[in-house]
Amino acid sequence: MAGPVRVLTVNAGSSSLKLALLDGDELVDDRHVERWGGEPGPIEEFLDEHGAEVIGHRVVHGGDRITEATPIDDEVQTYLESLTDLAPLHQPRAIEGIRVARRFAPRVPSVVCVDTAFHARLPTAAATYALPREWNERYSLRRYGFHGLSHSYAVRRGAELTGLDTGRGKVLSCHLGAGASMAAVLNGRCVDTTMGFTPEEGLVMNTRSGSVDPGLIGWLIDSRGLPPEEVFETLARRSGVAGLAGGNGDLRDVLDARENGDHDAATAFDVYRHSLVRHAGAMLAVLGGLDLLVFTGGIGEHQPPVRAAVGSALVFAGAAIDPAHNIHATEGEISAAGATARSVVVRAREDLEIARQSRVAVAVHG
């Protein structure tokens, strides 16, 4: 097929499903299923109603073999299934979406677009864990990075909004949502990122601890007798902002409670902010400076205090955020006058990125 236009994007979360039909960059229709357990109905009904020339599937983990958008055949699907233990919350649902689409519309090409692909060309020094070489080789251990579809779109859209050429620039992309990561993009290539082998590494998140000392985990298990499954469940689901703020990881509620004098909420936000600033500083050191600061994701788009906290900490790199623009921004530039590094808010549109990559994959592979 040459130059397909109408693309159905399938974005399956751990318990939800987002469908969107795009004709070029125009959204024809979309559907959000809040509670989705893998049943075929929503995808089949959407396809029956609209049809599609290509179906693009977002999948979190592509392992070390899928490093670009790839047409799905039985071999590719089996490989994606083998990676389930690396992303147990999201991978199974994405694979269910693939099964449904390939069974219901076998003549329509399905393409997998993986979040890890954006980081596949990380420099060796950034991608490699300082573990025994035989471990890294035997188990394919490396820093894979995540949120790649979001980062890819945000960097490109941020450049459009500011008129910058990211092919010759230093960009810090901040995807801040319930899950959060940063990506350092140098001349169009991701050269470092905060997430690693799994989406647990890096920034403090809504319910995830982010990076912690491995010795702490061993101590809890070996010296205090906590079951490993309880420790890892707690790090993933009951830590982060929620763990510090008494169980509520919604940053909107935490900020409100902080304004009302809640000490735990204030501490939770301070820890969250420190994590953002610390990792942003590390990313800028790798980049060697900053031309463009991009905010995207639910928090990045809708929480001015978070953007202000990051921007104020990066004044040394030329960033400066205009308070009035910041308060009212939904998408667009928020730089203050005189800033040498531009700052921008980008509305997350993974559907557009999935559609773009799917068209390219089908055009290249036929």
UniProtKB/TrEMBL annotation:
Name the domain of life.
Bacteria
Which residues does the annotation say bind ATP?
H175, L176, G177, A178, G179, D250, L251, R252, G298, I299, G300, E301, H302
Named from the GO MF annotations, one term is:
ATP binding
Q: Provide this UniProt record's keywords sorted from A to Z.
A: ATP-binding, Cytoplasm, Kinase, Magnesium, Metal-binding, Nucleotide-binding, Transferase
Enzyme class of the recorded protein, top EC level: transferase
Q: Where is this site: Transition state stabilizer?
A: H147, R208
Q: Where does substrate bind?
A: R58
How does the record describe its quaternary structure?
A: Homodimer.
* NCBIfam families registered for this protein in UniProt: ackA
Protein name, as recorded: Acetate kinase
- Taxonomic source organism: Saccharopolyspora aridisoli
Which gene codes for it?
ackA
